[in-house]
Design a protein that fits this description.
Rossmann fold, alpha/beta, binds flavin mononucleotide, 20% strand, 6-stranded mixed β-sheet
Length: 183
Amino acid sequence: MNCISLKRMENSMKSFGHEYNNMRKILVVYYSLEGNTKMIAKEIAGYLGADEEEIRPLKEIGTGFSKYFWGSSQVLMKKKPEIHSLQFNPENYDTIIIGTPVWAWTYAPPIATFLSKTNLKGKNVAFFSCHGGQNGKTFQNFKDETSESRIIGEIDFFEPLTKNKEDSLLRVKKWCDELLANL
Ligand SMILES: Cc1cc2nc3c(=O)[nH]c(=O)nc-3n(C[C@H](O)[C@H](O)[C@H](O)COP(=O)(O)O)c2cc1C
């Protein structure tokens, strides 16, 4: 098969995300307390035909007003809460896309637990976050924890469930295309 045929084959596979990613093996890993990160994760996984792993703490902090206190305390005390076992083994994937809500200007503690248990050395890694206006050091802290990975992208969303749904979903698609081009 010549180069032109190979390129054509690749382009036609790109338009069928799922089949394409059976070759590329992408996993979307996320934690979400109130659904914003979950919505974005599902959109990314659907668009890329990726597998989807929701990180679930054994003990969730609850969604009442006290969540700000308990959640931020966990961050400040650098807690790594216990999480349920994973459905998918990250070792089996070339590319891991990690999503988090921003808590106290960084990624949420259940994601800290995931990062501490997972070897991402040599993998393609991308990050996304959902926040209320201040992403803080979220991406810098992610990068510090994954210094041996190949970082292929990052994107943040401002309250996508309630404030910017349509625009956020459009941005997801554009970002996914950029990620694919980076693989
Ligand atoms: C404990 C806690 C701390 C938060 N800290 C921040 C913050 O530092 N900056 C910010 O912009 N939003 C902050 N937020 C708001 C969330 O990041 C935002 O609502 C996000 O969209 C929630 O995502 P989720 O629905 O996936 O849980 C915080 C929320 C909680 C519960």
